[in-house]
Amino acid sequence: MNHLGAWVAGLTSLLLGCGPLNSAPPDRAWTELRSTHFIVQSDLRAEQLESLGLEFERSYAALHSYLVPGGDDLPGQSRVIVLGSRDEVRQICSEPFPAFFRSSSSLLGSTKEIVFSDQERGAAMEVFRHELTHRFVAHYFPDTPRWVNEGLAQFLRAVSVQGDEVVVGAPPGHYTFDGWQWKLWRTPFADVWPRLDELRERTGYLEAPEYAAAWALVHTLLLGEPRHRLAFGGYMGELRDRQLDQPAAFAKHIDAAMLAELSAAYRAFPKRGNLATETIKLRRPTPQLSSRAMSRAEAYALWGGIRDRNPLQHALALQDAEEAIKSDASAAAGYLLRGTLRYEDKQGEAALRDLRQAVSLEPRKREAVRALASLLLVLKGATPEVRQHMETLRGVARAGDDYNALARWALAEQQPERALEDARRAIDADPGCATCYQTAAIAKARQLDFAGAVRYQKVAVNLSAEFANAGVVEILRSFDAARLDLAAPAPKSVGLTRAVVNAVVAANFAAFAACRERALESKPGTSSSLALHVDVDARGAVTRAEQGTSTLKDATSAACILEKVKAVRFPPPSGGATTLRFRIGFRQ
Fold first, then answer.
1. How many angstroms separate the CA atoms of 93 and 116, rounded?
2. Less Cβ around it within 10 Å: N or C end of the chain?
3. What is the distance between the alpha carbons of residues 108 and 402, in angstroms, rounded to a whole number?
4. Span 45-78, pLDDT tens digits
């Protein structure tokens, strides 16, 4: 983008309420602090950063002690970016809070981080504990419904550590009791209180009143009647053991009579004062910290990376990538960021040049190898070069994104068993990785295990509301509507109804979409489709695939999709060989 474009983006961002947009990170030196459970990158002074790192670890110990005393540690380390002031946080156009969680994903990988303002440490720590609770829930209770996930996060955001004791049950700072009713900022709870059945059925992102309602319900279950707490503990234990699905686990431990009692307590909560608290023992030792100075190139790449989460600052993020390369042309960080940004701009070949340069500079840098291999897979298909880089990645893989990229490669190679194995490794490494669960769902569906596909996809929806969009919900309905024998991993014979065909197409959609991406046709706001006539034999194998009407702009894309369709397996049709007619649609 030219200077005028950058100026317009900056002006638009200012009009939307964000702070001034600097084209460089703050002038102070940047430091990376590592502890047992966190990687913290910051422009704070060393003593401030060490103090904050210890506070992060105390919060981790408090949540671990309460949620899973004696349980194993969370895998990996959580990434936190700490800025010295709220103004600096506002430069990346955050929500109007002292801390917030950023998550983004693409074919080149995913980014999850907490951006934190040290200027308002008390309030920011509440947000930090809220987001950290989600990591515990994702690891130990992945099938948890939205109301429990957010209710626990709200319940534990105000936890406090006093010596070797942990106190839970205090309300979040923005919930107040005025003597006769609870308020969300200045709004009485009673004015915005959702019905209990509405709250329990919610799958997408919650609104502010629903967060308050979820907190109230979890508080009632954990610190109300002892038998309610016992029932809730049994329910969460079922979710942790993963022997029953979520609805069955709830029905087993909370019957209709108890649900009626909880409903009455829930309705009365908005005017209930004198909330109970609980004190438990802290079970974790003080960790060891280590730190290192970050290079100027790393600081520019970091700043550009977090700023690119805001589309209005994309041009400035690209400037940061250029500055990172100027600062140190021998480091991969700047090329990796610029390659990622160019991929977002649909500059496939330019992105490949940058990512190849990043890998040539640091041949075993996981992020660079993964990004290059993933982009090559999209643009070129399963070539020998992709295989070379994927094998390198397998040798250094340790993060969920690494194994998820390997799983996607296995899917492209028509190896669903290996894909499922790698997807499970991705989930073990990062239990909060919704895209990893989705990859596992696709692998299961390609093995015609629709029951397994449904289970994995529903966890993906629980973990991230972005998977609760109409398209994914329709995929789940297609799986469920197929009325297959869900106890059997591979049904012997079914009617190829529209629901079954939709489910199989959905399971293979990533391969079809890659054909379209490879031709670099995908542009924001455009859509296209391809009608197909497909012959399926009695075993479910495709024996012929022909193109019908098409709105694809490139013949290569259609030919690629036809080849992918020929590799698809359908459930064996109950009436023997048949011909299917269906349309595959693409929307950006």
1. 13
2. C
3. 10
4. 888 999 999 999 999 999 999 999 888 888 888 8
Q: How confident is the model at residue 87 (pLDDT cuts 50, 70, 90)?
A: confident
What distance in Å separates the CA atoms of residue 120 and residue 88, rounded to the nearest whole number?
Answer: 12
Q: How far apart are CA 477 and CA 334, in angstroms?
A: 43
Burial of 390 (0-12, 13-18, 19+ CB in 10 A): buried
What is the C-alpha to C-alpha distance for residues 31 and 55, in angstroms, rounded to an integer?
17
The SS3 assignment for 531 reads strand
Phi/psi at 125 (5° precision): -65, -30
One-letter amino acid at 332 equals: A
What are the tokens at 57?
Answer: 């670890």
What is the helix (H) or strand (E) element at residue 502, kind and residue range?
Answer: helix 498-507
Structure tokens at 71: 């349980």
Exposure string for 262-301, b = 16+ CB within 10 A, e = fewer: beebbeebbebeebeeeeeebebeebebebeebebbbbbb
Strand runs (DSSP E) across 30-71, as ranges? 31-34, 38-42
- CA distance linking residue 266 with residue 414, whole number of Å: 50
pLDDT per position as a tens digit, 259-314: 999 999 999 999 988 889 999 999 876 788 999 999 989 988 888 887 766 667 78
* pTM score of the predicted model: 0.76
* Helix (H/G/I), strand (E/B), else coil: 371: helix
Q: Which of 472, 470, 493 is nearest to 539 (CA)?
A: 493
Handedness of CA 86, 92, 95, 100 (dihedral sign): negative
